[in-house]
Each structure stands twice: as structure tokens, then as C-alpha cells.
Design a protein that fits this description.
CATH topology of the largest domain: Pseudouridine synthase
Number of helices: 6
Strand content: 25-35%
Largest sheet: 9 strands, mixed
Structural class: alpha+beta
Helix content: 10-25%
Shape: elongated
CATH class of the largest domain: Alpha Beta
């Protein structure tokens, strides 16, 4: 298998940590420069995009939205806010229709504030919350704002107290917190029963691959790495064609731009990154517009091959 910069979309299995996946990919491909785009809890299945080689430098420029399919169990509260934790309280859930339940879900749509689970990767004075939890240390997590773009009620089972949801949300959103807080809104309890991520950072589950299958594909010399440039389709593109422009770019110097070489007005948002390529569509890096002089300012420059 030809190794190049880009992304491998791992279909993570239950019980496997994100770091386990990184270690396995390093071993299979024989390279050290592998990084994940954000951890996925061991009990959560689904896609985990991994960056290979120079693609690790572009992780921050990927789309941050995530999409999940999950089930919430009402009537139970646990120490971890999912079904794997120790049960600390049980309470009946109300009798309600799907329409009524959907109205309650309005509390978790749009911009919301949520307190992360105690068993989470949030830092507290330089240490992860879950490590403090495992040491039985007392601590308090503060609420943070997240964005739930879409929350769809797929099914409601009144008898079992289980609802199925599809949720599209910003990075850093904890579905376990939504399960817990939904229980409170209903004057009951709630915890996450199961969760699968089907889309993350612009990558879909249809492009994912199990690590066991990756080993077989390597033996067949198959191409399974998604080139970095394809992961940046959501970013505006600027083509550098002049040799002087290319020399300036590769040496990290600002480039004076004009209306002749690109649609100037499209790049006047100084906070948005611009994908830089050459005439052969080779990815050169990421730049921004300097608000002082409207020049192109290099931010991430790839070394010429």
C-alpha cells in the first residue's frame, strides 16, 4: 500500500480507545506521524478520522460538526451518565406521546449549556476529569456552551423508556450529558444506552474501514488513504501560478494580491482560512488575508516535494 499524507476513516469497534486505534494504524502502516481528530469514548462505535503524515497539521481546519445515532434510557441515572456506570438512582418516566417527548427535546436544540460527565476528557488543573473520578477525588465541572444543530426523535418506546435519536452537533458536545439532563427535564432520570458516530469532520461512515480490513487491504496494495486536499473542500481555494508567488509562499512571505488572479471579494473575511494550491492542484498549505494590507499571509506552509 502506498503511504501518503491524508486521512484514514476508522470504523471503531466498541471497547477500543481512540489511542488504541492510533497505535494500531502506526503499526500497520509503519509510520509514527498519526493523530486522531478528537477522541471517541471506548463504548461508542463509529467513525474515527485519523490523520496520516502532514495531514496532522490540517486537523484544526476540518469541519467540526459531528453526527450520531443513539439510544437514551429514561428512568436510570449512573455515575458515568451511560449504561456502563454504577446505577445511583431509578425513577419512573412520565407517560407521553412521541409529540410530547419531542417538545421536551427542544430544551436541547440550538445553543445550549451543558455540564460534561464526570467521566470525560475535560481538563481540571491539568488533569483529565476521568482520572480524578477513578481516584475518587471530588471536583466540580463547569457548564460550557455547545451547539446542537439538529436533534431528531427517531423512535419512542413508552414501555421500555427508550428513545432513539439522531443528533448533529458541534465538537465537544456530550450526548451522555443530554441523556442525563433530559431525565431531569422529565422529572425522572436518564442515561445513554448506546451511541454510534456516523459523520465527523466532514467524513461519512460510507468511507470508513475496520482496522482488521485495513490489514488485508495493505497486503493487496490498495489505496485507502483520502488525500488531505479532499478533506478541505469546504475551504475557499486560491491558485498560485506565478513563480514569484510560489517562491514567496514557500519562504513564508506575504503575497500582494489583485483582482486579476482571483475573485478578490470572496476572501475579504480575515478570519477564514484559504486553501492554497498550485496550477497542478498540489496542496501548498493554508493562508489568511492580512487585515492591515489585504495581502495573503502564509499560516501553514508545506515543504516542497
Amino acid at each position: 500500500m502506498k503511504i501518503s499524507d491524508g486521512f484514514i476513516i476508522v470504523d471503531k469497534e466498541k471497547g477500543c480507545t481512540s489511542h488504541d486505534c492510533v497505535k494500531e494504524i502506526r503499526k500497520i502502516l509503519g509510520i509514527k506521524k498519526v493523530g486522531h481528530t478528537g477522541t471517541l469514548d471506548p463504548q461508542v462505535t463509529g467513525i474515527l478520522p485519523l490523520a496520516i503524515g502532514n495531514a496532522t497539521r490540517f486537523i484544526q481546519y476540518l469541519p467540526q460538526r459531528k453526527i450520531y445515532l443513539g439510544q437514551i434510557q429514561l428512568g436510570i441515572r449512573t455515575t458515568t451518565d451511560d449504561i456502563q456506570g454504577e446505577v445511583i438512582n431509578k425513577k419512573n418516566w412520565p407517560i407521553m406521546s412521541s409529540h410530547q417527548l419531542n417538545k421536551y427535546l427542544d430544551n436541547f436544540r440550538g445553543l445550549i449549556k451543558q455540564v460534561p460527565p464526570n467521566v470525560s476528557s475535560v481538563h481540571i488543573n491539568g488533569e483529565r476529569a476521568y482520572k480524578k473520578f477513578l481516584k475518587n477525588e471530588e471536583f466540580v465541572l463547569t457548564a460550557k456552551e455547545v451547539h446542537v444543530h439538529e436533534l431528531v426523535l427517531k423512535n419512542w418506546n413508552q414501555k421500555n423508556g427508550v428513545l432513539e435519536i439522531k443528533i448533529s452537533c458541534s465538537s465537544g458536545t456530550y450526548i451522555r450529558s443530554i441523556a442525563r439532563d433530559l431525565g431531569k427535564v422529565l422529572y425522572s432520570e436518564g442515561c445513554l444506552l448506546c451511541l454510534k458516530r456516523i459523520n465527523a469532520c466532514g467524513f461519512d461512515e460510507k468511507n470508513s474501514i475496520k482496522i482488521s480490513d485495513l490489514k488485508k487491504l495493505k497486503e493487496k496494495n490498495s489505496e485507502i488513504i483520502i488525500p488531505t486536499i479532499y478533506a478541505l473542500d469546504h475551504i475557499s481555494t486560491l491558485v498560485l501560478t506565478e513563480q514569484m508567488e510560489l517562491n514567496f509562499w514557500r519562504t513564508g512571505r506575504e503575497i500582494e494580491l489583485n483582482n486579476d488572479n482571483f475573485l478578490y471579494s470572496a476572501f475579504l473575511n480575515y478570519k477564514k482560512p484559504i486553501k492554497i494550491i498550485d496550477s497542478k492542484k498540489n496542496l501548498l498549505g493554508i493562508g489568511f488575508i492580512n487585515p492591515v494590507n489585504n495581502n495573503l499571509k502564509p499560516k501553514l506552509v508545506l515543504n516542497a516535494k
